[in-house]
Amino acid sequence: MNPRRKQRLVAFSAVILVVGGAIGLMLYALGQNIDLFYTPTELVEGKKGVKPQVGQRLRIGGMVVPGSVKRVDDSLAVSFDLVDTGPVVTVSYQGILPDLFREGQGIVATGVLTAANHIEAEEVLAKHDEEYMPPELAEAMKGIKHVKPSEAVYGDKG
Amino acid sequence: MWKWLHPYAKTERAFALCSKLLPWCWGGAALGLAIGLVWGLAFAPADYQQGDSFRIIYLHVPSAILSMGAYSGMAIAAFIGLVWQIRSADMAVAAIAPVGAVVTFVALFTGAAWGKPMWGTWWVWDARLTSELILLFLYLGVMALYQSFEDKQQGAKAAGILALVGVVNLPIIHYSVEWWNTLHQGATITKFGKPSIAPEMLWPLLISIVGLGLLVAALSLYRLQSEMIRREMHRPWVQAMYRQQEGQ
User: Fold this and answer.
1) What ipTM score was computed for the predicted complex, to two decimals?
2) Closest CA to B184 of B194, B175, B193
3) Average pLDDT over all residues of chain B
4) Closest C-alpha to B171, from B197, B135, B141, B138
5) Nearest Cβ partner for A12 among B48, B121, B164
6) C-beta atoms of B185 and A128 within 8 A
7) Pairing status of strand A118-127 against strand A77-83
8) Which residues of A sit in the known binding site for heme?
9) Mean pLDDT, rounded, for A4-10
10) Record keywords: Transmembrane helix included (chain B) (predicted)?
């Protein structure tokens, strides 16, 4: 390779490395702010030593505890518990839940923290996993039989 | 080792190579997309959780993978164009960018259309969605920079540097779902280990990915040829080709 080409090769490789390194450091520094949501554990025990304050607007993501969904018959009000590995956080919500909302399903809720482990949500989104399989296989493998939300019967009717 | 590549630095030879590859790409794309999409959209089983809505995966995943694949190709071309100053590589950057931008837009659009019924929202500013949107802006930036110089060689240089710098976005897109918690789910097939999708759903998906890949290749090669003719209109080889076509 002639020297001028070599010089350019080094220069442009350096540009990529430097810019890549700079952006990497930036993302590392911003790390926890890029997270879309708090997990229930982070909400209750704090995330890297910082606990969210009551009254703060935030997002929480976790799994709906089976049997914890309480609906009110004459309105759209609903409350349910979220869990990841530790503490449980209760979410109250008024509105239409997404189709994928089920007990045992991962969800992400946006709202205001009204007590240490209670959130008044204004938006509830469903999060699904990366597994796709036909219904028969799901039933055979995991013992899961999903029913449409419209046909679901929840354990505890409020 | 790279000696066999040297002749293709000549635009004329690269043009001939494109002509040779094009019919294969068009044919493969038509075949792959026809089989993959019909199989996926009509015959593959419905998902246990999402029912028939999950079928949009057969458009969403191929376009998302190809949005990154096309960008890698464009960045490699940009690197070659900048370091070895090969004109056909510069032209390849300009040829791939709009194709990649369209594929990225399709990925974002099908993702939004999938997100609304499943997640409950068209858009959320999580790391995966945002970084993919940045990819679209990178493509648009490369296109704009290339066009904004009177001297095409200057334009190609500026666009090439942007394309190169933007490469850092690719690992960010791919690993965003692992590094941060996001609404978007993790990788299904582009990961180590067994894909978490049933085989009868996976096959049509893989075939669609290959089909769309060949379509992107075909469109890029076609655009590359046009770009070569446009920029070398006054060169003898283009003139000779033109006269030959006239003569027929």
Assistant:
1) 0.77
2) B175
3) 92
4) B135
5) B164
6) yes
7) unpaired
8) 128, 132
9) 86
10) yes
Structure tokens at B246: 């006239």
- Residue range B170-221, pLDDT digits in tens: 999 999 988 888 889 888 887 777 788 888 899 999 999 999 999 999 999 9
The torsion angles phi and psi of B8, rounded to 5 degrees, stand at -75, -5
* Residue B219 tokens, joined: 């469109």
Confirm if A143 and B199 have CB atoms less than 8 A apart.
Answer: no
Residue (of B206, B153, B15, B134) closest to A23 by Cα position: B134
Distance between CA B51 and CA A55 in Å, rounded?
39
Question: pTM of the full predicted structure?
Answer: 0.87
Per-residue model confidence as pLDDT tens digits over A99-120: 888 888 889 999 999 988 899 9
B168, B170, B177, B206, best to mutate vs chain A, most A CBs in 10 Å? B168
Tokens of B40: 């996926």
| DSSP-derived 3-state class of residue A62 | strand
> Which residues from A are below 8 Å from B57, CB to CB?
132
Handedness of CA B28, B211, B19, B81 (dihedral sign): negative
Which of B46, B118, B197 lies nearest to residue A131, judging by beta carbons? Answer: B197
Instruction: Round to whole Å and give the CA distance between A99 and A88.
Output: 23
Which of B184, B220, B186 shows the shortest CA–CA distance to B98? Answer: B220
Residue A157 pLDDT grade (very low, low, confident, very high; cuts 50, 70, 90): very low
* A35, A131, A135 ranked by CB distance to B181: nearest: A35
